[in-house]
Amino acid sequence: MNTKAILLFCASLLLNFSCKHENKITHTPEAAHSQHWSYTGETSPEHWVEIEKNSDCNGKYQSPINIIDKDTDSVKTKDNLKILYSPTTLLSKVINNGHSIQFDFEAGDSISYKNEIFHLKQIHFHEPSEHKINGIIYPIEMHLVHLSKTGKITVLGILGEEGNQSPLFEFFESFIPLENGATKDIHQKIDLSSLFLEDKNYYSYDGSLTTPPCTENVNWVVFKQPIILSVDEVIKLKNNMPLNNYRNEQALNNRIVKLNY
């Protein structure tokens, strides 16, 4: 092999090594920056805007909020909400998704809100509560997430107060503990009528999901009267979820909160 051929061969090897090395370095920073949201540290709610680039987390109509009674608009529109829950609806499964304990439902339960039907998809929990009423933080908050056929979302927020034992929460907690990332099939009947939601006054406002992507245009219904559950039930839920899995209070930004009675 002459000198010219040797030089060309060496140059080819050098170029090939350089390209492979460059490709390896290019992909490393992307992997290093692939973060997922959480409730602590550098991926806590204060940083969701930074790590969830295509989300609504920096929008003007975010949730949760602090509901101040004296600033609400009291209206006789309680009939806008009709609870259509069935005693034979089946719980499909329970999931520990790393953010909360979530119960998924099979088809059956639904609500009518402002003359539109929303189907109950899942229930999950936050501790302590995400919404405040007159600055008061409750030990637990339960979110009942409903979806319409057109993709609209209505979430019922129910605050929990410590007191007597709750048979409903005993039923929920019979399926935990559950390891992070684990799923357990249930397929058992559940009757949510013990919540007596149709008898309660509620606040309503336009907001967002309280977890990324923080989707806005969510109908929020937050019941004024809390449900009662025992201290042990609160502790059991708390021990099976991330500590303090709540989003910080969001600015109202001139939104009107209604007290429906």
From TrEMBL:
Keywords: Lyase, Metal-binding, Zinc
E.C. code: 4.2.1.1
GO terms of molecular function: carbonate dehydratase activity; zinc ion binding
Cofactor(s) recorded in Swiss-Prot or TrEMBL: Zn(2+)
BP GO annotations: one-carbon metabolic process
SUPFAM superfamilies: Carbonic anhydrase
Family: Belongs to the alpha-carbonic anhydrase family.
Name by which UniProt lists this protein: Carbonic anhydrase
Organism (species): Pseudalgibacter alginicilyticus
